[in-house]
Amino acid sequence: MRKLEGKIAVVTGASKGIGAASARCLAAEGASVVVNYHTSKEGADEVVSSILAAGGQAIAVGADVSNEPEIAKLFEKTKEVYGRVDILVNNAGVYAFGPIEQFTAEKYHHEHNLNVLGLILTTKAALPYFPKEGGSIINIGSRVNSVAPANSIISSASKAAVDAITKVLSKELGPRKIRVNSLNPGVITTEGFIAGGLADSPMQKHYVALTPLGRMGEPDDVALPVVFLASEDARWISGELILVAGGE
User: Fold this and answer.
1) Per DSSP, what are the bridge partners of residue 151?
2) Exposure string (b/e) for 203-237, b if CB count within 10 Å is 16 or more?
3) 146 has pLDDT over 90
4) What is the CATH number of the domain that holds 227?
């Protein structure tokens, strides 16, 4: 039997990258998946099509998860189609780098409204839909907050907040049998990484040289641990911040 047979999973920001890979891997283990997207309906539809073609179940639901009314609509649609939520993957996020001289309140709020406030609001909105048996919440953080490189003040701060939220909510939601963990990836070869011209760049070679396993991370390298944390295999794991960075 597949690990997640009969479970309902909501994955935010699932039209590409880690979110898309997570949606596919969850579906492959039997979960019915709500593929959330904000701007790329085409990408979300492609993810859903690939899941359906493989014999899985999925729907695409558009919602800006930094916007509370839209978050409410995301879970209303989830309830309408599937009735509940067993797994929430808080993957939607943005990042930007630059020196403190380029810091603006607008840049700060753009990133934190999604990475931090959006994550909290999405989790809050999902809670009424979890069954009494509990479930699993997986936050996608980042290695950046522990490495804390120069020019990452906004991103490092937002991902450090994700770590703190994970710890707090694991204690707060534990009595409801909801486990909360964070996966903190290193540099992953996503569509954004490639579109930014970083593939085969000196930056990529630098990161590979620093990584003991000797390669870049791929979206599935994060998606497979998502499946583990969502499953009963991780039933005694909560409040953990797990690095997924090839040993870096």
Assistant:
1) none
2) eeeebeeebeeeebbebebbbebbbbbbbeebeee
3) no
4) 3.40.50.720
